Amino acid sequence: MVGFYTVLRWLAVLFLVIASVVIFIMYFRGTFRDRIEYKIKNVPAPRDPRFPLALASLSNSVTTSGRLTGFWIEAEAINAARIAAICSAEHTIHFETFFMTPGRRVNDLADALIERAQAGVEVEIVVDQYGAKELSQRYWQRLRAAGINIHFYNDFNWKAPVDYFARTHRKLLLIDGKVCLIGGAGISDYWDGLDNIKDTGPWYDFEMRWEGEVVAVLEGVFMQHWTYVRGTADLDPRVFHPSPNNDAIVLVTAGDDPSYRASSVRALFQVSISSAKRRIWIASPYFLPDKNLKRELIIAKNNGIDVRILTNGSQCDKKFVYYASCELYGDLLKAGVQIYEYQPSMMHAKALLLDNYWVSSGSANFDPRSFFHNDELDISSADEQLVRNIEQMFLKGFAKSEKLDQTQWRKRSIWQRVLGRVVLFFQSQL
C-alpha cells in the first residue's frame, strides 16, 4: 500500500510539472493577454466602388485582377483537376500545401510530378513539415531522385522551439505562371472519406482555378515562402509576367506571420462582415469566433441581414474543437443566426459570401489558429461566376445539413459541455 501511495505522489508531481510547463509556454505565447477589440464603422457596402480598396487596405491585401476558369466540388473532381493542371505544365510547377498522408492521392500526385520533372519541367514544392509528418522519407527521396526540388516549411529548431507552432496552411498550385489552383483540400485520401471518423461520403470541399494577373501575384506569394525555406526566388518572365486587363477585381490576402495585433485574415473577415447589407453566409469546418466577431454577426442579424453558418456536425476530425464551437452557439442561436451542421461527412470548405456580390475563400478557417498563427492564403472577388458557384456550394451544403435550434443545442450532454468549456480555455491556440 505504501508503494501505491508513493507512485500516486510521483504521478501527481509529474502532472503538476507537465501542467506548469504547458501554462508557462502558453504564458510566453501571450495566451492570457487582453484581447484587442477591433472597432470599425461606416464600412462601404460590397457593391460600393470604395469597398475593394477599404477591404484591401485594412487587411493588407494586394489588389489585382483575374477571372475564374474552373470550380470543382469534392475529392474526385478536385484531384482530377489538379492532376490535369500538372500534366499541362511546360515550364514550371510551383506547389505549396499543408496536409499530406500516405495513400492513393499522394501517389497519384508523385506520378504526375515525376513525369513532368523528367520531361524537363522545373518543379518546386513547399510542404509544411508538421502537416506531412506521416509520409516516409522514401516518398520524398523518390521525388528528389526525379529532380524535384522540395523544402519543408518550419522544421523544428531547438534554438527557437516555440516557432514550431507557426504553420503554413496554404494550398496553392501554380502552372507556368499562367494558371493557379487554390482551395482548402489537402493531398490525402481523407477527402475521399477514407479516414477514421466513420464518414458516409467524401469530405465537402472545393477548388478554384484562376487566370489573369492574379497568377503573377500568387507566384510572388509562393516565392516569398520559397525564400523562407532557403530556396531562390526566380522572377523569370516566363513565370512572372503580370498583364493587367479588364478582368474582375481580385484581392489576394496572404496571412503571413500574423500576430495578435496584425492579422490580415481576421481583418478581412471583420471588415467583410461589417459591410454586408443583405446576406452573410460563412462556411468553415472549425468555427470559433471571438466575442468581437460574435457581436458583429449578432448585430448583422438584428439589422435584418440573413446570417448563416455552414460547419461541421459531430462527424469531424477534431471533435474537441466541435464541442468547443458548440459552447459558442448560444447567443448566436438566440439572435436568430442559422447554424447548419453538415451530416454526411466532414465539411472542410472555407468561404464567406456577402450579399449577392462578393466572395472570400481560400485556406483560412474562422478560428484563432487561422487568424493569429498560420500563414494562410485567401482570394476575394466579385467575379459573377465565382459568386454563383459559391452560392450553389452553400445551398447544396445546407440541403445535407441539420439546422440547429435552441432546443437541440440545450440537449447536449453534460460531459460534452464540460469538455467544450475546457477546450475553450485554450481557444487562442485552436
Automatic annotation (TrEMBL):
Q: Which InterPro entries match?
A: PLD-like_dom (IPR025202), PLipase_D/transphosphatidylase (IPR001736)
Looking at the record's lineage, which domain of life comes first?
Bacteria
Q: Which UniProt keywords apply?
A: Membrane, Transmembrane, Transmembrane helix
The segment(s) forming the PLD phosphodiesterase domain are: 164-191, 343-370
Keyword Protein biosynthesis listed? The answer is: no
Does Membrane show up as a keyword for this record?
yes
Q: Which Pfam families match?
A: PLDc_2
| Transmembrane stretches, start-end | 6-28
Q: What is this protein called?
A: Cardiolipin synthase B
- Tell me the organism: Gloeocapsopsis crepidinum LEGE 06123
